[in-house]
Amino acid sequence: MKFSISIIASLLSTTLALPVKLSNSTSNSTNSQEIVGFSDDFMKTWTDVTYPTIENCNATQIKLINKYYEDLLEVASIARSHLINEGVDEAFEHWFGDDGNPLTVLGVIDNIVEGKKDGALYRCDDIEGSCASHPTTWPGYHRVNASQETVICDLFFTSKKPIEDMCVIGNITDVGPKKFAGIDLFHRFLHIDSINKGFIAEYVEEKDELVEYAENNSSFAVINTDNILYYLAETYALELTPGGCLGDYDALSK
Ligand SMILES: *[C@@H]1O[C@H](CO)[C@@H](O)[C@H](O)[C@H]1NC(C)=O
Ligand SMILES: *[C@@H]1O[C@H](CO)[C@@H](O)[C@H](O)[C@H]1NC(C)=O
Ligand SMILES: *[C@@H]1O[C@H](CO)[C@@H](O)[C@H](O)[C@H]1NC(C)=O
Ligand SMILES: *[C@@H]1O[C@H](CO)[C@@H](O)[C@H](O)[C@H]1NC(C)=O
Ligand SMILES: *[C@@H]1O[C@H](CO)[C@@H](O)[C@H](O)[C@H]1NC(C)=O
Ligand SMILES: *[C@@H]1O[C@H](CO)[C@@H](O)[C@H](O)[C@H]1NC(C)=O
Ligand SMILES: *[C@@H]1O[C@H](CO)[C@@H](O)[C@H](O)[C@H]1NC(C)=O
Question: Ligand 5 atom closest to Cα of 216?
Fold first, then answer.
C-alpha cells in the first residue's frame, strides 16, 4: 500500500503545526541573521513521498513516529541538495572517498523516500518479544519471517533524539548518526530487501572500517549503510552550523 491513512492524516496535521517561520518584521532577534533553510520546504523536494503503515502503536508513539519521519525527510532532502550542489566535496570524501560514485548515493536517498514501501510496516507491539529480551540494547528489530516489518521498541522512543539535537548532544563521531531517530528510521528501510534491492547492506559497521572503505574501497563505501548515514549526518550538521560538528575524523581510524 502506498499510503497509510493514519500516517498521512497525522503527518498533515503535524505539517500544519510546523514552527512559524520568522521574518524581520516579526522577530526581534539580537543579531541580524535571517532564519532560513529550516522550514517545511523539504516536503517539496519530492512529489511522491511514500510512507510505511503504522500498526499497534499508541497515540504518543504515532505522534513521535510522524515527527521522526519528517526528520528523515528533512535530513534526506538536505543531503540530497548538498550532494547535487557540492558533489565530491570534503564531506563526501570522508565517507565515500574521492572516487566514490555520487550518483549511487543520490539514488539511494531518492529510493528511500520515493521507493515503493509495499508491506513496510512500523509496529510497536513487540510481537516477537525481542524488545523485552533486549530492553537496553535493541531500539527495534526486523521480524524474522517478515523482514519488511519493523518493530519499534520502547527503547527507540526513550533513547533516540530529534534532529534538533544534532550538534547539541555531542559531535557526530561521538554520538553516531543512528542516535538521531530520523536517521535511524532511514537505516531501517535499508534492511528491507525490496528497498535495499540486494545492493545496500551493512558490509562493515566499525568506525575504522568505514574510514577504510572510504579510503580504499569506494565502490563498497557508496553501498554501505553506515557510510551513507554518516554522510547524511555530516551534511545536515553543515547546514545547521558553519563548519558542522563532525568531531575528530582522524581519530576514527585509530
Ligand atoms: C530582512 O532584512 C534584511 C536586511 O534589511 C533584508 O535584506 C532581508 O530581505 C529581510 N528579510 C525578510 C524576510 O524580510
Ligand atoms: C520588537 O521590538 C519593538 C521595539 O522594542 C516592540 O515595539 C515590538 O513589539 C517588538 N516585537 C515583537 C514581535 O516582540
Ligand atoms: C504509549 O506507550 C508508551 C510505551 O509503552 C507509554 O509510555 C505511553 O504512555 C503510551 N501512551 C499512551 C497515550 O497510551
Ligand atoms: C520462521 O519460519 C520458520 C520456517 O517456517 C519457522 O520454523 C520459525 O519458527 C519462524 N520464526 C518465527 C520467529 O516466527
Ligand atoms: C588503505 O590501504 C593502504 C594500503 O594497503 C593502507 O596503508 C591504509 O592504511 C588503508 N587506509 C585505511 C584508512 O585503512
Ligand atoms: C571491498 O570490500 C568488499 C566487501 O567487504 C571486499 O570483498 C573487497 O575485497 C574489498 N575490496 C578492496 C579493494 O579492499
Ligand atoms: C567536537 O568537535 C570539535 C572540533 O570539530 C571540537 O573542538 C570539540 O571539542 C568537540 N566536542 C566534543 C564534545 O567532543
Answer: 1
Question: Which one of the ligands is nearest to 21 CA?
Answer: 1
User: Which residues, listed in sequence order, are joined to residue 141 by a DSSP beta bridge?
Assistant: 151
Number of domains in the chain: 1
Compute how many other C-beta atoms are within 10 angstroms of the C-beta atom of residue 36.
Answer: 9
Q: How many residues are recorded in the chain?
A: 254
Q: Which residues line ligand 2 (CB under 6 A)?
A: 26, 28
For residues 248 and 135, give the distance between their C-alpha atoms in angstroms, rounded to a whole number: 31
In a domain, residue 232? The reply is: yes
Nearest CA to ligand 6 atom 13: 217
**Domain carrying residue 91:** 5-19+33-249
Q: Is the C-beta atom of 174 inside 6 A of ligand 7? A: yes
Predicted confidence (pLDDT) per residue in 151-168, tens digit: 999 999 999 999 999 999
In angstroms, what is the span from residue 211 Cα to ligand 5's centroid? 9
The predicted-structure confidence for 51-100, as pLDDT tens digits, reads as follows: 999 999 999 999 999 999 999 999 999 999 999 999 999 999 999 999 99
Cell numbers given for 84: 547535487
